[in-house]
Amino acid sequence: MVYLRISNCDNCLWLPPLGQLGNLKELIVEEMQSVQTIGNVFYGSDGSMETLPFEDTQERKEWNMIGGTSTEFPSLKTLSLSARN
Predict the structure, then answer these.
(1) What contacts 61, CB < 8 A, 6 or more positions away?
(2) The organism sits in which domain of life (predicted)?
(3) Residue 54: half-sphere exposure toward Cβ, Cα within 13 Å
(4) Between residues 14 and 43, which one has the greater pLDDT?
C-alpha cells in the first residue's frame, strides 16, 4: 500500500501506527475531529513517507516527536496542517 486516506472518523482519539506501513508514501488525514495527540506510536522505522497532510483536525493539541527530533520521516517532502473554522 502506497496511498492511504483516513477521514471522517469523529470518535477516533489517536492515530494507529501508520508510519509502520513500510511502503506508504502518502497519508492523508482529514476531518478527524477528535484526534488530539499524535504520539510516538504513530511513527514507523522505515521512513518512506513523502506526503503527510492533516486537514480539518481542529482538536489537535500535541505532536510528540521521538526524542524531540524530526528524523522520524527522513523522506518527507510535504507536511501540511490545516483547520477549518
Answers:
(1) 36, 37
(2) Eukaryota
(3) 17
(4) 14
Task: Give the start-end residues of each E strand in the chain.
Answer: 3-7, 26-30, 37-38, 51-55, 62-63, 78-82
Name the nearest CA neighbour of 10 among 52, 53, 58.
58
Tell me the pLDDT tens digit for each residue of 35-83: 877 776 676 666 688 888 888 766 666 666 655 555 567 788 888 877 6
Place of cell 483536525: 57
CA distance 44 to 14: 15
